[in-house]
Every structure is written in structure tokens, then in C-alpha cells.
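Page 42, continued from yesterday. The earlier attempt failed because a stray header line got pasted into the input along with the sequence. Redoing it now with the clean sequence only.
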Amino acid sequence: KAGTQAQNDGGISLLVGISAVPPTWTEHYSSLYTGTYEVKLNYLAVSLGIDARYVEACVSYGIRTGATYSSEYGGSTSSGDITDEESFLGLAAYAKLPIKLLGATLFPMVGAEYLITTSLADENGTSFLDNLSSLGESLYLGRLFIEAGLGVDAGIGGKLFLRGAFLYGFKIPSQYDDKYISDQELLGYTDESLSISLLKADLAIGFKL
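This time it went through. C-alpha cells are written below.
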């Protein structure tokens, strides 16, 4: 019976969960020397979602729990902590294919998530958002990721089930990304490239309606 509890057979389920979201921001460039600048961010988010067997949609709210940077340029390296504070709102939708296996349900999933920065301030509480003078400058506050991964449902009794999922995602370049690269090239950094990816772990409790 555990398999039938874990499987959402065409019905609707509510999901309440938490997510650990560590995006990595990597910049490669060349000027007098070739270099790399990398930022690792860590977020923790809570989420509320709806599942309809082949489709899942959720909204989340998260905060940055830590950040570090590292750079290499001309044989010199440096690293340190980033003390900025940030929060975000996330909107996500996924398609998935449930497969029953050994009393649980596995499901490959693919979809998109849009992260909207709701606050961004330095360690003294001074908001960076106050310096944005136009809608164009604020475009970077929205980050669209394409994500894919694997999830599993396991029944825990009655209409309740436990869900876990791991997803990898990459950010779709935005107008802000293109402008940033152009600005860096004007400063003499040639062959500039920028990539942003994330690896996300989700854990949720579901309730079949």
C-alpha cells in the first residue's frame, strides 16, 4: 500500500517544503592576463506548492545564508566572504513523469524557476535597490533558470507522503548580463564570459486532497 500512498494518481496534492539553493556565479575573462572570478551563494527557502501528478507548481521565499568569492588573475589568487544580505521570491513550474519502484515513486522532472530579488543590502543595512534608477537597471533582479532533476515520493501514512528532489539549473542570460559583459570589455577585459548555475535540494511533506 505504500506505493499507492506515494503515487499521486491523477489527484491534487498540497506540498509544504524547504529548499537549499546554492547558485554559483562564474566569470571568465582575458586582459593582460587570463582570469576567473567565482561567487558561491547559499540560500535557504520555504515553499508552498500544488502537485497534479504530471505537473508541479510552487512559490517560495528564501534568504541568503552565506556567500564567498574566489579569483585568479595573472597567477595571483584571492578569496573571502561576501557580507551582503538578500531575500528573494521564487516562482517555479515543472513537468514530471512518475515511475513506481519498490514501494516509492521516482520522477524525472524538468521546468523553470524565476527568482525575484526582494531585498539586497550591505552588512550595515544600506539597500542597494535604492540606487536603481530605472526599470532597465533592475532587470538583473529577475533570474530565470531552466532546471532538471530527479524526485522521489514515499508514503508515510494515510494521505501524507514525503517528497525529496535534487535539481540542477542554469540561468538564461538577461539584458543585464549582456550589458555587464559589454561594460567589462570597455574596461579592457576581452573574451569575457559569464555563467550562472545552481544545484538545489528540496524536501517537502505532501497531502493528497
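Notes: The two ends are 18 Å apart (CA to CA).
Reminder to self: strip header lines before submitting.
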